[in-house]
Design goal:
Blueprint: H1 15-26, E1 34-40, E2 45-52, E3 58-68, E4 77-83, E5 97-98, E6 102-121, E7 127-130, E8 134-147, E9 156-163, E10 172-180, H2 194-201, E11 208-217, E12 220-227, E13 235-242, E14 245-251, H3 267-272
Parallel strand pairs: 5-10
Antiparallel strand pairs: 1-2, 2-3, 3-4, 6-7, 6-8, 6-9, 9-10, 11-12, 12-13, 13-14
């Protein structure tokens, strides 16, 4: 299973160029800008990508594993993952079928690290979810994070863990590819929420006629049920996307991601909406 499909780009005939395009173009790690080593055979390639340090040396960020795709003399290279050492990504395993929220983990060797996880759709590279930074460090120490996923339009996704902040924003990263058990609906249009809100809140003297969308991303949304009656208060609603459509997590006129303490059901919602 490919974590970065190649198509017919002639540049994909070079393993090093493909590894850099995956790192800089698909993942957006523009600071990782050079190949610092490679081993290429007819059946696969391992390309080490990295960056320059302030003392004019180079530092390795990851070893990209690639395989040739197709048949014939001109087979484009496809990225299938990374070979991990100092930062590993072992959960979920490569090719696993997963669901949201996604539990991610591995091991790390380092000092004062801050691990972040992204989930990207393979087709187009769309960002489907991110985790908050996870403080980590030590010698081969376990780390873990949870990532809510939403907005996928196909099932194959790329999971990438990063750490950095000492010499560069991204100093090490690890990648794997997995499949979603089902595709999560992506629409954030007001009309996607109104029928659910009407079914939930309509009663004598209160009729929901519209939805105000405050924010919607990563498979979660914060919206307001707009009533026909001008003397009625707009109800604030937090929702999550499921394979069957949007479902309500919680609602109330006085709740917020700024609440201290935050009610447990809102923790993944507020993280996904970047409000916590």
């Amino acid at each position: 299973m490919d974590v970065y499909p190649g198509g017919h780009d002639p540049g994909r005939l070079d393993a090093g160029a493909t590894a850099l395009e995956f790192t800089r173009g698909f993942l957006g790690f523009t600071g990782v800008d050079r190949v610092v080593g490679s081993t290429v055979t007819p059946t696969d390639a391992r390309v080490t990508v990295g960056f320059a340090t302030t003392d004019s040396r180079t530092s390795a960020a990851a070893v990209i594993h690639l395989v040739p795709f197709g048949v014939g003399a001109h087979q484009p290279w496809e990225v299938v993952g990374t070979e991990d050492t100092g930062l590993t990504l072992t959960t979920p395993r490569y090719g696993a079928t997963v669901s949201s929220p996604l539990r991610v983990g591995g091991r790390i060797t380092g000092v004062d690290e801050n691990i972040r996880v992204q989930v990207r759709q393979v087709s187009g590279g769309r960002l489907l979810g991110t985790s908050a930074g996870v403080p980590a460090g030590g010698e081969n120490t376990p780390w873990s994070a949870t990532v809510p996923i939403g907005g996928a339009t196909d099932q194959v996704v790329t999971v990438v863990a990063t750490t950095g902040g000492h010499l560069a924003e991204v100093e090490r990263f690890a990648v794997t590819g997995v499949r979603l058990s089902s595709v999560i609906p992506a629409t954030c249009a007001p009309g996607a929420f109104t029928p659910l809100l009407a079914a939930t809140f309509d009663r004598p003297g209160l009729t929901v006629i519209d939805t105000g969308v405050a924010t919607c991303r990563n498979g979660y949304a914060q919206v307001f049920a707009v009533p026909r009656e001008t003397n009625m208060q707009h109800e604030q609603v937090y929702l999550r996307a499921t394979p069957a459509g949007w479902e309500i997590v919680t609602y109330g006129s006085g709740i917020s991601c700024a609440d201290r303490p935050l009610q447990p059901s809102l923790v993944p919602v507020c993280r996904a909406l970047s409000q916590r």
